[in-house]
Amino acid sequence: MSADPLVAAAAIARDHAFAPFSHFLVGAALEAENGTIVLGCNVESASYGLTTCAERTAIVKGVSEGLRRFKRVAVVTDTEVPTPPCGACRQLLWEFAPDAVVVLANLQGKVVRYTVRELLPAAFDARYLG
Ligand code: THU
Prior knowledge:
The chain starts with a helix and ends in an 11-residue tail after the last helix. By secondary structure, the protein is an alpha+beta fold. The chain has helices spanning 5-14, 54-64, 87-96, 116-119; strands spanning 27-32, 37-41, 70-77, 101-106, 111-115. The chain has a five-stranded mixed sheet. The relative contact order is 0.18. 27% of the residues lie in helices and 23% in strands. It has one domain (5-129): 3-Layer(aba) Sandwich (Cytidine Deaminase, domain 2), CATH 3.40.140.10. Residues 19, 22, 24, 26, 42, 44, 51, 53-55, 85-86, 89 line the site of tetrahydrodeoxyuridine (THU).
């Protein structure tokens, strides 16, 4: 599907998506600074607001395994236009991957790239907490 192994990993993660309510399957793959790849998928809840996006699943998994900085993230969906991360995911990406490249891809291999900085200008973070 893609020559980029991170995109291929995100496509595998998408196969694990639990989305019985929206039927919108999302896979993410995070590349840590040490090269470790962490997968995430969206996990929906019958209490809809408890749903976790694929990107945040991957970040929380990685941080809980001792990884603190990430250099790239790939997100795969079955949409004509590759799907950008939601606002909540942009916030967590900013906090753990401020310099990361965000690689958005669909199943046809179309790829769009952004940086986290481009996706969340003037971000709030720990600096403001004093
Ligand atoms: N979703 C993600 O996994 N990532 C995003 O950045 C956007 C939305 C999921 C959440 C929900 O399970 C489904 O897509 C529809 O919103």
